[in-house]
Write a structure and sequence with these properties.
This protein is of the alpha/beta class. The chain has 22 helices and 22 strands. The strands form 6 sheets. A 9-stranded mixed sheet has the order 10-9-8-11-12-13-18-22-21, sandwiched between helices. A 5-stranded mixed sheet has the order 2-1-5-6-7, with helices on both faces. This is Polysaccharide biosynthesis protein.
């Protein structure tokens, strides 16, 4: 049926019901006034004579106060408020009108009061009864029996949505909740059966088919505990996405999704100072290197929402740059931006870019980051991570940029690999440049980023889809994790609060064992580790450490305005002369493809890091060329 016709028919039926209820309430008020006995002739005559005025006034008030904008199927408190206003206004105007017409002759004073109560019940009662019947009609289908975890606002709306579903694919049986005040009570007529620790017991007693977690704001620690309990039941479970329900004030079944590994590895959300971030970035010309990568592209998205004067995107990957350009054109049509396909190691191109675009803030995200791959790609790591940083940072200093933000890594702390060593030298370059010009140089250091290109999570997903095995390097290896949006928020926050020379690190919480990550991802896929999907331990890869660190022991911790963000100033490090000579030696040896000389120069710059030449290393002419150009 045509939706417009259906809507008009529904409104007509509602108006007809309400219009009929008016004379019924008016005449019944007289009857009740005379104790359900015969009404004296003069009063019944008065009732009939006044009825047209009552119909006109009360019908008009019902329309004016919008009783027909609501749908009976979803009648709620706002509808009851509108009905009360309409009946109150109607009763008052009826009394005034009848007094003006015939001084309310033969109209007992109690009749309007009784009429008010009857009319209120006749308008509100059928609507609420209709909704109750729809919400609680008998379930004759073979829908899945559901236990809802969380009896708060989100659980309430989720249960309501299930009961409204005309197909009744899901049948809510009850709730569990850890809050004592909720246990033993009812929500939407469904019992709160106990605490979450009783889930396995309740599942057996009630014949539950599906578990639904209505706790979109649960911490990662709470989520891990709940998932472990749910896994004991052997039943599938679903979760509501974080924050979405609170943003639009509604929940429905379409928002449910499987629990993801990000739900288990995330941490309590860090409240950053968004007004300060926007104030620091708005109206500025902002350059982002590596703009097509995992971190760079998310930086572009978030900075684009901060109203910059212009975004300047740099990447040496053609497809990545094209992809972020297309995304900006679709999502930010009014944003002024330019994109440049160039390599940060191309000094002349970088200088020309700074001269033509005149950026005010620079976010340097361009880097090679894959630890085992870079172990025998020393030249590529040095050129991109070290020389590229030096070229961009010096251009920022020469052209009077306001801030330069280097995106670094926890692997730069006591580096055990080429990637970490190259990033530590990049940090040293920025700290040496700070104070030598108007530009403030800031470093942001964080751990592993969930879902970034080359990270372990996509690898494990692919291995699980292929049936295994899932390869873990060591049973005890552990890492810090954070999400891409959280990492980018840290970067932007650091850019506006830094005075120059600091290394900012987000409070990363507790490290997560990679073994636990693999086991949970297998379980979340509906299978059991080492039964359906084997876990294979393959040994530490070249350059890997069992544990990552966030600070050097020699770094001086500096408090910041944000309790979840820490800062450090590196005390030990190469002097200005040592750094300049070491960088010159690195550049010369890289230009000559002299692997041993590059290692020697690295060892001089970083005495804490030592790597001997590998006798089984591929020939010098093949080292570093393909990766650098990839």
């Amino acid at each position: 049926m045509n939706p417009l016709v259906d809507r008009l028919r529904s409104r007509t039926a509602a108006f007809t019901h309400d219009f009929i209820s008016i004379p019924v309430a008016w005449l019944l008020a007289y009857w009740l006034r005379f104790n359900l006995d015969q009404i004296p002739p003069q009063f019944i005559t008065s009732a009939w004579h006044s009825l047209p005025w009552v119909l006109l006034i009360q019908g008009s008030m019902c329309w004016i106060f919008g009783l027909y904008r609501g749908v009976w199927r979803f009648a709620s408190l706002p509808d009851l408020v509108r009905i009360t206003k309409a009946v109150s206004a109607g009763t008052l105007l009826i009394v005034v009108a009848l007094f003006l017409v015939d001084r309310s002759t033969h109209i007992p004073r109690s009749v309007p009061v009784i009429y008010f109560g009857l009319q209120l019940m006749m308008l509100a009662g059928p609507r609420l009864i209709y909704r109750w019947m729809k919400d609680h009609r008998l379930n004759l289908s073979s829908g899945q029996r559901v236990l809802i975890i969380g009896a708060g606002r989100d659980g309430d709306m989720l249960a309501r949505d299930m009961m409204r579903d005309p197909y009744r694919a899901y049948f809510p049986v009850g709730f569990v909740d850890d809050k004592l005040r909720r246990q033993g009570s009812e929500v939407q007529g469904l019992p709160v059966l106990g605490s979450t620790s009783k889930i396995p017991e309740i599942v057996r007693e009630k014949g539950i088919d599906l578990l639904m977690l209505a706790l979109p704001n649960a911490t990662a620690c709470e989520m891990r505990r709940l998932v472990e309990i749910c896994e004991q039941t052997g039943l599938p479970f679903r979760i509501l996405p974080q924050l979405r329900a609170l943003m639009n004030g509604q929940l429905d079944m379409s928002q449910l999704r499987p629990v993801s590994i990000e739900d288990l590895l995330g941490r309590d959300p860090v409240r950053l100072d968004w007004p300060e971030i926007r104030a620091g970035l708005a109206g500025k010309r902002i350059l982002i290197t590596g703009a097509g990568g995992s971190i760079g592209s998310e930086l572009v998205r978030q900075i684009a929402r901060s109203d910059p004067a212009r975004l300047i995107l740099v990447d040496h990957g053609e497809f990545n740059l094209y992809r972020i350009e297309m995304e900006l054109l679709e999502t930010q049509p009014g944003l002024e931006f330019s994109r440049h396909l160039l390599d940060v190691t191309d000094e002349r191109a970088i200088r020309n870019l700074f001269e033509s675009e005149r950026p005010v803030i620079v976010f340097h995200a361009a880097a090679y980051k894959h630890v085992p791959l870079l172990e025998n790609q020393l030249r590529a790591a040095i050129r991109n991570n070290v020389m590229g940083t030096q070229i961009v940072a010096e251009a920022a200093a020469v052209h009077g940029c306001e801030r330069f933000v280097l995106i670094s890594t926890d692997k730069a702390v006591n580096p055990a690999n080429v990637m970490g060593a190259s990033k530590r030298i990049a940090e040293s370059i920025c700290q040496a440049l700070d104070g030598g010009s108007e530009c403030r140089f800031i470093t942001v250091r964080f751990g592993n980023v969930l879902g970034s290109a080359g990270s372990v999570v996509p690898l494990f997903r692919r291995q699980i889809e292929q049936g295994g095995p899932v390869t873990v390097t060591h049973p005890d290896i552990e890492r810090f994790f954070m999400t891409i949006p959280e990492a980018c928020q840290l970067i932007m926050q650091s850019a506006v609060i830094g005075d120059g020379g600091e290394i900012f690190v987000l409070d990363m919480g507790e490290p997560i064992k990679i073994r636990y990550l693999a086991e949970q991802m297998i379980r979340l896929s509906g299978r059991e580790p080492d039964q359906d999907i084997p876990i294979q331990y393959v040994g530490l890869r070249p350059g890997e450490k069992l544990y990552e660190e966030l600070f050097y022991a020699s770094e001086e911790l500096v408090p910041t305005r944000h309790p979840k963000i820490r800062a450090a100033r590196h005390i030990d490090g190469p002097s200005g002369t040592e750094l300049t000579e070491g960088l010159d030696a690195l550049r010369t040896s890289a230009d000559l493809f002299d692997h041993e000389a590059m290692l020697l120069a690295l060892n001089r710059l970083l005495p804490c890091w030592s790597k001997e030449p590998d006798p089984e290393r591929p020939p010098l002419h093949s080292a570093g060329l393909t990766t650098e150009d990839a």
